[in-house]
Specification:
By secondary structure, the protein is an alpha+beta fold. Among the domains are: 291 residues, Distorted Sandwich (Beta-galactosidase, Chain A, domain 5); 85 residues, Sandwich (Maltose phosphorylase, domain 3), CATH 2.60.420.10. It is built from 20 helices and 33 strands. The strands form 8 sheets. Strands 1, 8, 9, 10, 11, 13, 14, 15, 16 and 19 form a 10-stranded antiparallel beta sheet that branches. Strands 20-27-28-29-32-33 form a 6-stranded antiparallel beta sheet. β30 and β31 form a beta hairpin. α6 runs antiparallel to α8, α8 packs parallel to α10 and α18 runs parallel beside α20. The chain starts with a strand and ends in a 10-residue tail after the last strand. The C terminus is likely disordered. It binds beta-D-glucopyranose (BGC). Beta-D-glucopyranose binds next to loops. InterPro entries: 6-hairpin_glycosidase_sf, 6hp_glycosidase-like_sf, Gal_mutarotase_sf_dom, GH65_N, Glyco_hydro_65_C, Glyco_hydro_65_M, Glyco_hydro_65_N, Malt_Pase/Glycosyl_Hdrlase. Its EC number is 3.1.3.12. Belongs to the glycosyl hydrolase 65 family.
Length: 814
């Protein structure tokens, strides 16, 4: 297996769900699980197609509560393709003897290949090859090609090819008590003798989806004229296509699919658009070629070459593939965010959390306009966030922990512990730190791109309104002469209250408080960065007065931060008084303690009682802020924090974390990279393959996108130390030699830049091209200006050399 293919031998029903998620094909507009085309949701298979931004709400009665949930809707299944030989049964994996089976995802070209050889009850042997893609260049199109070869028989084959609207959202066992029937008012029609269409509406959000498919058959290379019969069942439409085949002859069915919804731009209405798309679409091979070309172009920007072992290289490629299938240039106009589990399954119902914090840096370094559009998803939901703050008696904007269609809080208020079968109150929506993550993303996008227009029109307003919210969340404690923040939840979701109290949330959560102080500083910087006219407009518009600015300034000096006696930052006030968990005992008794909260609850205990964290929490500070930045924030707050305290903090929390979120490995790799290279590489490896290697996790319900991309990001921003700050592209490599050589291309101020890192050396090469202002590259004390087509070599312990590479030949000479 190369680093550009992911293959699976045989058919393993227990692993099928995970393979389906790992073999998703998509294009940022829609994505489809790697489910077998003949399958339906049956506990083993789960066909799922999800369109970015297509949410619907349903109310269900659960544990004596009426719960309204918003979910990313599982759309009609366009894969539907099966066949029968003579008058035999329709093909399913159960109805035949499987002689061989394998499946391969072509990571470079986004194509899923499936090969089977089987014998049926009449002892006839048949080979089947299927290829599918969701077109990366034409976002509404997909294709599925099925080739059958009768090895030892001749006879009739009837294919059934169509669209199945009988799907519901039942992909996650824990949610099955909730209603999952989102599609209503389905209609079907035959558009032409080769094309059928199914349309449906989502029950509450009223999104109309239309899917059409054109099915044609070839016998060897000749187009066949099959006998066609229209099949119309309730919420299903298909054509049966019957042909006669001879032994050894190849019969090939091309299914070209178009998917449109009423959320599309440049559209009259989805039914007419789907009709037109299928009518005008090219054939399978042509579409495959343009699809592959689109991938070549995307990889030119996103490729991240490593010279280490093939396993790690494959994981890097696969993780980037899934990023680009979830968000692409086709996402840019859709007004959507980054769903935590991709467009790959139904876990977390397609909701958007803080996970973009781990994903956006990789996008910003390559396609910054996409980051901009993903941030605009948040900007458009500023009114909702303001209303949410107002409703709770706060000022500014309180962004929801889980977001979907319109920015309402979508977090569940009760959740099922599958270990105990109990429905429990859920306070995780108190993760107010989501607002800080959004402000951080805005500020870092601005730092990386210098996009002043964005900052002026949208970014500063978000930062100011979020700061305003945190300033009103904080109260002044006279006894302490400090600002305090009560009743929140941090990234560690095991601690949502103090033990034995009814009050939700915890107090003076260190990450929240310190980042609030950081935010108050950034708010001032953001205002200062605006042109004078825009600054006064915004201040006027938001009715900001000097009292508010004064309060923010005071907060940078007086927010309270809890510490343990030995200088360890306390996760929150009182964390150090909680009981210590006997980790060895739990590790002995349970094969997997990542979801320790569920284990403890099932044992009748409360996770709030223990110094045991789900994921990096205090350590997030070292992930997001440089040591100097953190020291400066704490210094202004009146707390001295020396470099030596960092390892102490890391050590303390490392021993008290169960890594119940894939994000935890990313953060731990990052914070260990300077001091414990080997352990950092271990965590890096864990983050990189969390979905790829986990057979017992929840990957079947969707990939963990932020863990996947955060893992790749470790290579560039952590180990290679690439940073965009202060008008320069900076390198501070702590490169683990066991990872070989890193080669990637990024964009800095619209200039393509090739970076090569190996051991202690960094080579930076700018693409040749039109004259542009030179860019500044900095490594340690060395700083060079690079114009187009120039190269700089840095060694972390020797001065930079600069050399000119010959300019590229003008295009007309090539
Ligand atoms: C983690 C959160 C994360 C969410 C979605 C949870 O398990 O605790 O930090 O945002 O998953 O990925």
């Amino acid at each position: 297996m190369t680093a550009w293919e992911l293959s699976f031998e045989g058919f393993d029903p227990d692993d099928e769900g995970r393979r389906e998620a790992l073999c998703v094909v998509g294009n940022g507009y829609f994505a489809t699980r790697g489910a077998a085309p003949e399958s339906v949701a049956d506990g083993v298979h789960y066909p799922g197609t999800y369109v970015a931004g297509c949410y619907n709400r349903l109310t269900s009665r659960v544990a004596d509560h009426d719960i309204e949930d918003e979910s990313l809707v599982n759309m009609p299944n366009w894969l539907l393709l099966t066949f029968r030989i003579d008058d035999g049964p329709w093909f399913t994996l159960d109805s035949v003897e499987l002689l061989s089976a394998d499946q391969e995802l072509d990571i470079e070209r986004g194509i899923l290949l499936r090969r089977l050889r089987f014998r049926d009850a009449q002892r006839r042997t048949t080979r089947l090859v299927q290829r599918r893609f969701v077109h990366l260049g034409s976002p509404h199109l997909a294709g599925l090609e099925t080739t059958l070869v009768p090895e030892d028989w001749s006879g009739r084959i009837t294919f059934r090819s169509g669209i199945d609207g009988r799907v519901t959202n039942t992909g996650v066992a824990r949610y099955r008590a909730l209603d999952g029937r989102h599609l209503v008012e389905q209609g079907t029609r035959e558009i032409t003798p080769t094309t059928v269409l199914l349309h449906a509406r989502t029950s509450q959000s009223g999104i109309v989806v239309a899917e059409a498919c054109r099915s044609e058959i070839w016998l060897d290379t000749a187009k066949a004229q099959p006998r066609r019969t229209l099949v119309r069942e309730e919420n299903l439409v298909a054509h049966d296509l019957e042909v006669t085949v001879r032994q050894g002859q190849r019969v090939r069915l091309e299914k070209i699919v178009a998917l449109h919804t009423s959320r599309d731009l440049a559209s009259t209405e989805p039914i007419a658009e789907a009709e037109a798309s299928t009518r005008e679409a090219a054939g399978f091979e042509d579409l495959l070629a343009t699809h592959a070309l689109a991938w070549t172009q995307v990889w030119a920007r996103y490729r991240c070459g490593l010279s280490t072992d093939v396993r790690a290289r494959r994981a890097v490629n696969l993780n980037l593939l899934h990023l680009l299938q979830t968000v692409s240039t086709h996402t840019a106009d859709l007004d959507v965010g980054i769903p935590a589990r991709g467009l790959h399954g139904e876990a977390y119902r397609g909701h958007i959390f803080w996970d973009e914090l781990f994903v956006l840096p990789t996008i910003t370094l390559r396609t910054p306009h996409l980051t901009r559009s993903l941030l605009l998803y948040r900007y458009r939901r500023l009114p909702q966030a303001r209303a949410a703050a107002r409703r709770e008696g706060f000022a500014g904007a309180m962004y929801p922990w889980q977001s979907g269609s319109n920015g309402r809080e979508e977090s569940q208020r009760i959740h099922l512990n599958p270990e105990s079968g109990r429905w429990l109150p859920d306070n995780t929506h108190l993760q107010r730190h989501i607002g800080i993550a959004i402000a951080y993303n805005v500020w870092h996008y601005y730092q990386a791109t210098g996009d002043e227009e964005f900052l002026g029109s949208y970014g500063a307003e978000m930062i100011l309104e979020i700061t305003r919210f945190f300033a009103s969340l904080a109260t002044y404690d006279h006894g302490r002469d400090r600002y305090v923040i009560h009743g929140v939840v941090g990234p560690d979701e095991y601690h949502t209250a103090y033990p034995d109290t009814d009050r939700a949330g915890i107090d003076n959560h260190a990450y929240t408080n310190i980042m609030t102080a950081w935010l108050c500083r950034v708010a001032a910087d953001a205002v200062r960065s605006l042109p004078a006219d825009r600054r006064s407009e915004l201040i006027e518009q938001l009715r900001l007065d000097h009292r508010e600015f004064d309060r923010w300034r005071r907060m940078t000096r007086k927010l309270f931060v809890p510490f343990h006696d030995d200088g360890v930052i306390s996760q929150y006030e009182g964390y150090n008084h909680l009981a210590e968990l006997d980790w060895d005992d739990y590790r002995r008794r349970y094969p997997d303690i990542r979801r320790l909260d569920r284990i403890l609850e099932a044992e009748g205990r409360d996770p709030n009682e223990f110094q045991a964290s789900k994921q990096a929490d205090v350590l997030m500070l070292f992930y997001l802020l440089s040591a100097e930045e953190l020291r400066a924030v704490l210094h202004d707050l009146g707390y001295e924090f020396s470099g030596e305290q960092i390892p102490k903090n890391i050590d303390y929390y490392l021993h008290r974390t169960s890594h119940g979120s894939t994000l935890s490995a990313v953060v731990h790799a990052w914070v260990l990279a300077r001091g414990h290279r080997a352990r950092a590489v271990e965590f890096f490896d864990r983050a990189l393959v969390a979905d790829l290697d986990s057979r017992d996790g929840t990957t079947r319900e969707g990939i963990h996108l932020a863990g996947m991309v955060g893992g790749v990001d470790l290579l560039q921003r952590c180990f290679a130390g690439i940073e965009v700050r202060g008008g320069a592209l900076r390198f501070d490599p702590h490169w683990p030699t066991e990872l070989g050589v890193l080669e990637l291309s990024i964009r800095y101020h619209a200039q393509p830049v090739l970076v090569r890192v190996s051991g202690r050396t960094v080579t930076v090469r700018t693409a040749p091209g039109p004259q542009r202002p030179p860019i500044r590259c900095v490594c340690g004390s060395q700083s060079v200006l690079l114009g187009p087509g120039e190269t700089a070599h840095f060694a972390t312990d020797r001065p930079a050399e600069q050399q000119q590479t010959p300019p590229a030949a003008p295009a007309d000479e090539l």
